[in-house]
Amino acid sequence: MATSAYDFSFNDIDGEPLELSRFAGQALLVVNTASACGYTPQYAELETLWTRYRARGLVVLGVPSNDFGAQEPGSEAEIKQFCQTNYTVDFPLTQKQRVIGGDAHPFYQWVVDEIGEVAAPKWNFHKYLIGPDGSLAGLWPSDVSPLDPEITETIDALLTA
Question: Who contacts 2 (Cβ-Cβ below 8 Å, separation ≥6)?
Answer without folding.
Answer: 8, 106, 110
